[in-house]
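haha ok so turns out i had the wrong file open the whole time. this is the CORRECT one, sorry everyone. sequence first:
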Amino acid sequence: MMKATSEEDLRIGFEKLLDPILKELGIKPNPKYEKSIYNAGRTDALHGRVVIEYEAPFAFKYERNVRHAYEQLLNYIKGLSKSEKLTLFLFDIKFIGVGFDGNKIFFVHYKGAKNKAKTELDDNDFNLIGPSDFNDNSARTLLTHLRALARLPLNAENLAQKFGPKSELAPKAVSAFADALENWGNQVKIRTYFTEWKRLFGIIYGEKFSGQKEKEAEALSELYQVRKETDFQELLFSVHTYFAFLMKLIAAEILTLK
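then structure:
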């Protein structure tokens, strides 16, 4: 860091240092850089729920630069909090902001009422801690926040990335369901569910659903990496089963959030 001469030098160098440290802590690094936030600009780095705003080396020796970075972080946190909210209202804000110039560091915490419903966030509900020298203690604080908030926000973008058809999990799960539908378990019970599902979809889509679906089957098989000889309706049923199961897990996760 002592060799950095610009904000970009600092960001690239520090992020390279962070990567092996996070892995050693059991955190799978998945940073996002220059992420566009509605009405707030682009973040320098986003690690789960930790937003890092880098400034030029030694910039924080001037109060105006601290204030500028703090205001940017407030806007990022407010924008990210709105984008991930699950209802009309905002409650506890999980994001933490970090301002860093290679020499000093500060943290931005939400201090407002966690259980009070609100549609907008007040700047007065946030607290600036620091700036303080970047040393063993402040570095430990940063790593503690990164470890505690490594979990990705529960939003559409992250759900699609982790559980969508292009993820590692989806093709494996859909293939497993398709195999189970054909070869495993109580076939009488399974086929009863499958027949009922076909009846409902036949009502919704009419004759189109029962017709030949060679192109659709081929596209769906390729998307989920399932063998092409799998029947189209069985494959679609397996995909629906996967997403129905996923939605139940997400619902259970949301219910446990504090």
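The chain has two domains: 7-153, 162-256.
again sry for the mixup
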